[in-house]
Amino acid sequence: MRKFLLHLVVFLLFPAFCTFFLYWLPVDKYYAYTFLDKGGCPGRSTWLYQQLFEDTTPIDIAFMGTSHTMNAVNDSLIATKLRGNAGLSYRCLNLAYCDFGRNMDFVLVKDLLAHHKPKILFLEIRENEAQVGHKQFAWLAKGQDVLSAPIYFNRSFFPDLYKALMMRLQYLREQFTHEDEARENNKLVAEFGYNPSKGLANEQDLKNESQKAAGKSPQPTDDNPLNYAPMEYVAKIVAMCKDQNVTLVLHYLPQYGYSNGSLWLGNNYSSYSSEIFKMKQEFYELPANWYDAGHLNHQGATQFSNELAVYIASRKRKL
Amino acid sequence: MLFNSLEFAFFLPIVFVLYWFILNRNLRLQNFFLLAASYFFYGWWDWRFLGLIFFSSSIDYAVGLLISNTADSRKRKSYLVATLTVNLVILGFFKYFNFFAQSFQALLAVFGIEASFTSLNIILPVGISFYTFQSMGYAIDVYRKDIEASKDTISFLAFVSFFPHMVAGPIMRAKKLLPQFYKSRIFNYEYAVSGLQFLLLGFFKKVVIADNAAKLADTVFNNPSGHSGWSAAAGVIFFTVQIYCDFSGYSDMAVGIARLLGFDLMQNFRTPYFSLSIRAFWQRWHIALSTWFKDYVYIPLGGNRVGEAKRYVNLFVTFLISGLWHGANYTFLVWGAMHGIFMIVEDLISAHSKLKLPNFFRWLITFCLVSFAWIFFRAKSVNDAAELIGNLFNPGSLVAFKDLLLAVYASHQFVLILAACMILLFIIELQLSCITPDVWMTKLPKPLRISLYYLLLFLIVFMGLSDLSPNFIYFNF
């Protein structure tokens, strides 16, 4: 038995070394972003790549987050309002990407700050942190970022290691066989940014969501160990913004019914950023502003964006 | 749980370590652990069906004891009939209820009778045909006094559910496998290495060849009207390759995993596509099932001891049942019937004609007939199969075929690599006509052997693992 295991380990040393090497394989960013199109938000990642890497026009105000932000922040409306009301000619861009996971924000912010220097970066916060990482984080992140992800209480750590490996294998194969050219020819070209949802949420769904929220503890969950990993990413984003002298503002976009009282992670958030952008309580409670229990509709988004424009204008002197 | 899944990559080493390091001193405990691991393996797919496999094996275990405890032949027979009925009712309900209900409804409609049968939304339990047949085979063997009834419940339950072969065979005879559960197993280096060799080859066949061949085969069979000439022929040939590599790959993996645990499973395939006749093909294809049908259906029907006409009827019926075993669809019935007819015609020709064709032509005819029959096996309906056959003989341009290849495989380079992999498999298969893969690999000079291991491993990772395919075809049966 000992001989068998020894021979097996020796045999597997070389493949193990090659596997480890794969994490250091520099994956072309364009490939990584277009690879994301296989995820749940087709086309948007290719558009994100174009905005972050190809378009050299400066981005003044950037919005990062999940589909909550995608549906709530009308970037062109904010730019128009700023120009009309405050005479500010700012380029505003909604760079949110669908699905939850703070690690994805980290990668996107890292890529954003590597190529642009926005005046303000708005980062979405909700009623609580997503306690599982983004499903496609490993496809976009550098190997080193996957390996150095927080390991304790991070349920996504090992799946991400696996996904990163698989993605890199596919990358290697496609580089060798030129399969990626087919995807290149089929890539989606569309306008993204603000993603309006025209419609009204079902009131019963909203009521159910409210009841669900009421059943949960309103206490802050700062001590929940499952928040360690996402909060570590928030800390990293804060540090990157500080390094680049970018103002970070956290904008609050919870699920319907969770707006009561203080933010669950209020203590932690205020220690990271002095500013949290929050609408009045009534706004979050008004069913007419919602498309479903998670997303604002066009009417809600318009109000939200108008308030954001006012907020940005009011900060003009500080910028 | 699939052999080519991430879960199994964790499951197998854990089972291996616990099995050999912790439980190796107590046979009963080792068998109990194998039973628990097998139920966990099966339950990973759907735990609700664990009750079914437990019920089915318990019935056969109890009936085995009842049969062996009585000398009254009438009672013995009634016990056997009872267990066969229970097993076939279970199999029939889960696999064939809707098929027979709809067929009966269609038949009544021919006579102008309107009948309405409810179609049930029945989930087909994975591998039900395999473990039911294995369990039934045991009861028949006990009845025939070919084996002693098992008095060890744990060993028997572990024998039926043994995870390496539970969901897609090979269907092992109790006479061969059950005694292996009674004897203590000692770790053997060469045996374990041969297990890894089988595993490696099985993965190569499944992940590199079958899954990639499936891409083109699926494209053609999912749209039979859209492909003709070269493209349609390529679809058929690729499916011929796919089904062999998929199923024999799984069987190789099953043999390999069993060997890692100290068990010997039969080899289910012996280079069947090199056969020079349909009879030879069936002696080398899915050997476990062919011998099962021979021993438990064909021979009880009369086998070769009856007159020529009756023998041919028996042969045809056996193949028809074999077709139905594969699935509840007319396509499988037609496939079984075709093979029955091929066998009968081949038998008649060899008995009444002195014509002796060169081996190459015998091989070519056999291969073409087998591939042709696969059309019915793979097509969604008999109409689809007929449409594809019609298109096979329509002239299709080479340009369309080239476009199809590019549409499916995205680049010339990928097609070339896949072709190289198929050639590599062909070369390996040529070596395996007379010996098993482990013996062949062990005989290779060490540098060549190690290089082959690394090459296969590289191809598995490079061509397959980044694009994990969820299913084995034979899980559906």
What would you say this structure looks like, in words?
The complex is a heterodimer of chains A (319) and B (477). In chain A, helix 2 (29-35) runs antiparallel to helix 3 (44-54) and helix 5 crosses helix 15 (298-314). The radius of gyration of chain A is 21 Å and the shape is globular. In chain A, helix 13 links the parallel strand 4 and strand 5. Chain A has one domain (15-318): Rossmann fold (3-Layer(aba) Sandwich). Chain A has 15 helices and 5 strands. Chain A has helices at 2-22, 29-35, 44-54, 67-72, 75-86, 102-115, 137-140, 143-147, 157-177, 180-186, 203-215, 228-244, 266-272, 281-285, 298-314; strands at residues 61-64, 92-94, 120-125, 247-252, 276-277. By secondary structure, chain A is of the alpha/beta class. In chain A, 52% of the residues lie in helices and 7% in strands. Chain B is mainly alpha-helical. In chain B, 73% of the residues lie in helices and 0% in strands. Chain B has helices spanning 6-22, 27-46, 50-68, 73-110, 128-143, 153-161, 174-182, 189-222, 230-260, 278-284, 287-301, 308-326, 330-352, 359-378, 382-392, 398-409, 412-431, 437-443, 446-464. At the A-B interface, helix 1 and helix 9 of A face helix 8, helix 17 and helix 19 of B.
